[in-house]
Amino acid sequence: MKKQNLFIKSLLVFISLSVSIHLTTNARVARAVNEWTKFVDIVETFTAGNLKYAINADSVSIIGYVKKPKGRLYIDEYVEYNGKFYTITAIKDSEFKGCDSLEYASTQWTLHSIGSNAFKNCSGLQGVCIGACPIATTAEVQYSRSSAMLIDDNPLLSLIFIGSHAFQGCYTLKDITVFQKTPPILGVDIFSDVDKSTCSLKVIKGYKSNYTVPDQWKDFTKVSEFSISYVPENETSQATIFTERDVIVVKGAEAGTSITVYSASGIQNVTLTTNGDEQRIALPAGALYLVKVDEQAFKVALLQ
Questions:
Q1: Are strands 287-293 and 258-263 parallel, antiparallel or unpaired?
Q2: Distance between CA atoms of 273 and 294, rounded to whole angstroms?
Q3: pTM to 2 decimals?
Q4: Measured on CA atoms in the order 113, 115, 116, 121, is the torsion positive or negative?
Q5: pLDDT in tens, the chain (304 residues)
Q6: Which residues have a Cβ under 8 Å from the Cβ of 139 and sit 6 or more positions away?
Q7: Core-most of 112, 187, 270, 279, by most CB within 10 Å?
Q8: Are 76 and 106 in contact (CB under 8 A)?
Q9: What angle do CA 17, 3, 5 make, to 5 degrees?
Q10: Burial letters for 217-256: b for 16+ Cβ neighbours within 10 Å, e otherwise?
Q11: Could you tell me if 96 and 105 are in contact, meaning their C-beta atoms sit under 8 angstroms apart?
Q12: What is each CA distance from 144 to 50, 55, 148, 229, 262, in whole angstroms?
């Protein structure tokens, strides 16, 4: 019996050092239970809408879905859970693999990695937009109210890594739009089975040449450029917003207009009332902010 108990204790120690567990309940509660504290990697997960997420500090990874997504899939910059906003930074391996009714997928600038096989065998996928994608596009790409506003001459924001075979088996893919000056880094055979002679690759105006050299990107023969414009939520407002290094600049707001700046997690950073002049708001770079000018709302990225 003593030998058996010793074996069980040894086994528990081995498991605690080598296994990660995913909990749908509050991870802090789990840590309060003695046996659970032996696990060194406890990951809290939650579901919002149709997607499932795993928390890593202030960011989350997409780890699954409730129902197999159909039609259009829009991945936002952040997701709210228990009153807190988490930045969406990754899609894990094979998460949307075999979603054959998915027709269009778009991501935002906060997404840093798309896992291997993430969209493999999505046989109905026709269009993909990577990084800071609008909800709707026209000849000139225009931003909807929920999309990130790219300002100044900095339409690019983060460098994405796309894992091996991410879009393999996507035979019907005919349109790829990339909001990055520098092409995303690619794993092995990302676009195998995609017809590079008919699938259109669209990149930001002025950066087409960046996509003519890297492996896999250079295989696309239909490469075009698009310009960026922004449609404000309040068409009658004269306020404009742009960035200069680590400063957000608000111009044209009438005297007495309230300006409030929030972090992506919803924390209020700055509040002020404009005197009618140009307002310059210095904030840490490398982050996304929500700037509210009276009833106008803008999402602003300060680059590092």
A1: antiparallel
A2: 10
A3: 0.66
A4: negative
A5: 544 555 444 544 444 444 455 555 566 665 555 666 666 677 899 999 999 999 998 889 999 999 999 999 989 887 888 878 788 999 999 999 999 999 999 988 788 999 999 999 999 999 999 987 765 433 333 333 333 344 333 444 566 899 999 999 999 999 999 988 889 999 999 999 999 999 999 998 888 999 999 999 999 999 999 876 444 444 445 677 877 777 888 888 888 888 888 775 567 788 899 888 888 998 877 666 778 887 676 777 766 5
A6: none
A7: 279
A8: no
A9: 55
A10: beebeebeebebeeebeeeebebebbbeeeebbbeebeee
A11: yes
A12: 22, 28, 8, 11, 19
Q: Provide the residue type at 89 as one letter.
A: T
Q: Is 142 exposed, middle or buried (0-12, 13-18, 19+ CB in 10 A)?
A: middle
In sequence order, the 6+-apart residues with CB closer than 8 A to the CB of 246 are: 282, 283, 284, 285, 302
Q: How many whole angstroms separate alpha carbon 84 and alpha carbon 244?
A: 29
Q: Residues 6 or more apart from 129 whose CB is under 8 A from it?
A: 104, 105, 106, 107, 176, 177, 178, 179
38-49 in b/e form (b: 16+ CB < 10 A) is ebeeeebbbeee
Q: Which residue has the tokens 């054959």?
A: 100
Domains for the chain: give ranges and CATH numbers: 1-48 (no CATH), 52-230 (3.80.10.10), 240-302 (2.60.40.10)
The identity of residue 95, as a single letter, is E
